[in-house]
Amino acid sequence: MLRNRLPGSLLVAGAVVFCLAPAPAVAGTDGNTPSVLALSVVDEHRATPARRVTLRCDPTGGNHPLAAAACSQLAKVAGNFTRLNAVPVPRCTKEYAPRTVRATGFWRGQAVSHRASYANSCLALAATGSVFRF
Prior knowledge:
The protein is α+β, with helices and mostly antiparallel strands. The protein has a single domain, classed as Subtilisin Inhibitor (2-Layer Sandwich), CATH 3.30.350.10. The chain contains 3 helices and 5 strands. It has helices at 2-20, 67-76, 121-128, and strands at 35-43, 51-57, 61-62, 99-107, 110-118. A hairpin with a 2-residue loop joins strand 4 and strand 5 (110-118). The longest helix has 19 residues, at 2-20. It is globular, with a radius of gyration of 23 Å.
């Protein structure tokens, strides 16, 4: 009688071990962990609400109008928003119309929380390129 119970016990024990094993990361099309970022742009000098988009990378998606370019740009700097520097020597006016950009979410499995303010939209776009161009 014990012999009949043993296979069932092993099956249950195997199921418990399987359930406790960590789940593998979901890989994207190029072998990277998918990235999902919530991006926003606030023009501080205007009484308009923040513009917000979602950017997904690996695979590319979301409602960002330049998702492929933004993902490519972020991939080049390993998701480090402070290193984007799209136009190192921008030709911008000295107008003061502050713009704040924000990013939260995950870049290839790492939590992201970025916030930066610029004197105007030209300087913001020069620093961030297509990532915050929406």
